[in-house]
Structures are given as structure tokens and as C-alpha cells.
Amino acid sequence: MSTEKDNKARDSERAGDRRQAQTAFPSNVTALPSADRRERLRIVEALLFAAAEPLDESTLTRHLPKDEDITALLEELQGFYAGRGVNLVRVAGKWAFRTAEDLSFLLEHYVVEQKRLSRAAMETLAIIAYHQPVTRAEIEEVRGVSTSKGTLDVLLETGWIKMRGRRKTPGRPVTYGTSDAFLDHFGFDRVKDLPGLRELKGAGLLDNNLPPGFTVPEPNDSPHLASDEVPLEEEDEDAADLFDEPLAEDDRQAENSVADSETQEDDGEIQEDDGHSNISQAGGAGG
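^ thats the sequence. predicted structure below, dont judge the formating
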């Protein structure tokens, strides 16, 4: 009888020890997630892994139970992959797996691509990124030289810029802005992540002896039209659709020839290995 009581006492003591151990985690350690939560993490992980392009949170939410905290799931996955060879990153407001930045050199052999853009095209792209929404005339004002339609056509064909609307001024000129493809290619979550005055100076892209009052515009790529813009007309949208398909080689050469002819400087070879081409050289132009 005494032995039975002793056994029960020991069992009760062990159960108490287990309960104490379960509630005695340090403040920076939490209990393992439930099976349901692990399953939801696996669902999100599988969707992102299989996607051909970044996914937004609303798309992911459609595959999860109602009222699921998708932001918390993504942050947990992001933390899990933080120290691994593949990272979960946010680009253009969406989520995607990307090779860890410090290992990108291992894949240069597979992803190096040469795109021949003129200096004029790179300057135009930087001006659009920092000054958007901006018209062709406003681009010319910042650059100080004329900008051919061919330069804008080349940038539209890359998918990095888009026609936003039309300015409420005589002639209703088209306004241009950057696209999600621009953010994805250059690795930015928002256009506001572009380098500012201090970063441009630190990189040697701006002279330290700048005129008084010189500023770098704060980029803004809001999807909503500005107060001085009106929507594109139907024929404008039809023209924009033409750039959804790649140009034929002869057309591409013709476009590049037009863009190159507007500047007397030698063309630069823009090598894009991991999506970090330099677009900042004209970012501070203008006030």
C-alpha cells in the first residue's frame, strides 16, 4: 500500500516538473508552434517557392483560413530564412524568395546579362525615378538637352517605366513613372528607398561642392494620379500594350540607334549581374 502511494507521489511530482519546465522558458524563447500553425507556414512557403513572380499578401491570404495573420506568418518565415542561402524578401510591396545577397557572386555565371543602354537612357531613367510623375519636357529641363522619343521607347520596352497619365497643361503631355518591374530589378521595396543626398555623396556620384540650397527630390510612385494629372485615353493604353511584347531585333537596334544619337558621349556597357545597375547618377539633377 505504501509503495503504491509512493509511486503516485513520484508520478505527481514528475508531472509537476514537466508543467514547470513548460512554463519556465526564457523571455526570448517561445514554445513550438501548433501543428495547425506549422501547416499554414508550409502553405505560405510552398506558394512563394512555386510562384514565378513576387506575391502580395492578399494573394497568399486567399489560401489560408479567414482572419489568419499573414503578416506574422511572413515575418516568421523571413526570420527562419534569414541566415540561410535563400532569403525571404519584400520587393515592390510583395514577397519572394531571393538568393542571399552575400552569395550572389556564386550565381553570376548564370545570371549575367548585357544590356546596352546609352548614357542618355540611364540619365532619363534616373530622372523619372526621382521626379515622377514627369513629362518629356520636364525631363529635358532637368537634363538640359533634348530627349528623343526613342530613349523613352527603349525604357518602356524594358518594362522599368510606364505611362501614368496626362498633365493638365496645354497639349496634355504624357507623364511617366517607374513600374514594379523597376523595383523588382533593382531590389527596392519602395521607390522611396532610392539613395538620398547623403548616400549619393558618399558613393561619389555627386560633387561635394554643390550650390547652396541643392536638394534631391523625394521619390514618390503613388499609384494614384496627382492633382495635375488626368487618366490616359484609350488610344494611349493601346500604345502602352505594344511594349508588353519584346521588340524584334531589328526594331531594338533601331530604337537604340535613335537613343544613342542624342548624346555625343560614348555609350556605356551596363552590366546587370544581380540587379544593381547604377541609376543614381542623375538623381540629384535639378532642384
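The beta strands are 86-91, 94-99, 113-117, 134-135, 161-167, 174-178, 229-230, 268-272.
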